[in-house]
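fold-stage: in
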Amino acid sequence: MTDIILHHYETSPYSEKVWLGLGLKGLAWASVEIPRIMPKPDLTALTGGYRKTPVLQIGADIYCDSQLIMRELERRHPTPSFYPAGRGAADALAWWAEKRMFSPAAGILFAKKRDALPEGFLEDRAKFSGRNIDPAAMMAAVPHLLDRLRAHFDWLDQRLADGRPFLQGSAPGLSDLAAYHPVWFLQRNFGSAAEPLDGFPRLLNWTERVAAIGRVDRNRRPFQTACCNILHYPRHFEAQVYVLFTLPRHSPPASCTAGNTTMHIACVSHLPSCRQKSHEQK
């Protein structure tokens, strides 16, 4: 079987989702640590310029964005499924949880633990997002961000009110993994007793069940070892890079070259059934 290699860093919340997904499916994987901020010369050479975390490598196929990674893991390894109760509601719950919960959680961290962030972290994120990150303004917004999270946590808590162990029933799935990592992010940085987590003991019990899915043992590899079959191949080699559709200013090139490798970039729709083929240079 072709090795699964995850390019990530240890404190990445979206990597946490993928780690647990690999654990749920019982898949062994290799780990390549990448920097938290730019420059990331090894990663961007592999991905054709994509810089976000995590990135999954399976042979000569490179998958960018955790949503796409989870979709590909499900396609290649359908059992046990990320969708024990069906796809539609699970995809909707996962999209809502990530798009509505992680941003306020990150805002609280940036405001309250700015000194604990790596040097240059806020500047890197501001440059990438195109937005000004003002710590004073973020601190003033903390009460509002806490209220937003409190509302989202209450909705999750209501899903568990009938005694079900996971959000969609008796088995964990994608919706649990996607909703878990913003909660994990707060727990890791502030502890379970911090607000608004302290008001939802049922939700905290759920996080313990999700965390118990665990991570399969991994082998740590340096970048050069993990990618020697692509970027350092002795003859001309072609790789495929898959990314989700992005905003125009973040759109990748159709293809790029690193060493003896030509990487063709394929943009993939958020909808699992829609895939746009890459533009291959002749």
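fold-stage: in (second)
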Amino acid sequence: MPPPFPSAGGSRPGHFQRRNNDPFANIRRNHRIKVPQVRVISPEGKQLGILDTPKAVTLALEVGLDLVELAPNAQPPVCRIMDFGKYVYEEQKKHSHAKTTASKIKEIEFTARIELHDYQTKLRHAEEFLSHGNKVKLRLKFRGREMAHTEIGFGVIKRAVADLAGMGHPDAEPKLIARNVNVMLTPLPVNKRKPKFHIEPGADGA
């Protein structure tokens, strides 16, 4: 008599598949590399040519390292002799640094006809962000017919870049993208920062 319900995906009863969230788990290394031959790169980056896989694995293990498959779809697959644990650590560190850098970008928005007081307040905030080591994106949004006179907006942004020169430098020239003028500022080294609008607590000698 057939079972009352069809099995889901052909899995064994009571068997649960765990999702592996480790992005490095699928990288084959050492005895998990099943192809007969691989193209081998030394730890220093030199080409060692095509070797039988068992010989390449032995070569790596003899020097206390791993044979790691880097290009599985190549013919034959490309492997490198390396410290896999160190490789994983360095990749995770780079990924973490990229996320941290992205989270450190602050944005200051201007308008083409911004009032002086508002302008100075925004620059004060920009200087404060730069003083904390954050990159600052200056963005000016054109409204309505202001697009007919983009030079006004560019003038505001260039003036802001000049006023913030004591705290940060632009990564590139201001650019018009759609209805916005954008420019990214990177903070100067700590010993070269000279705030013009933002006064650090205690900096006035009080």
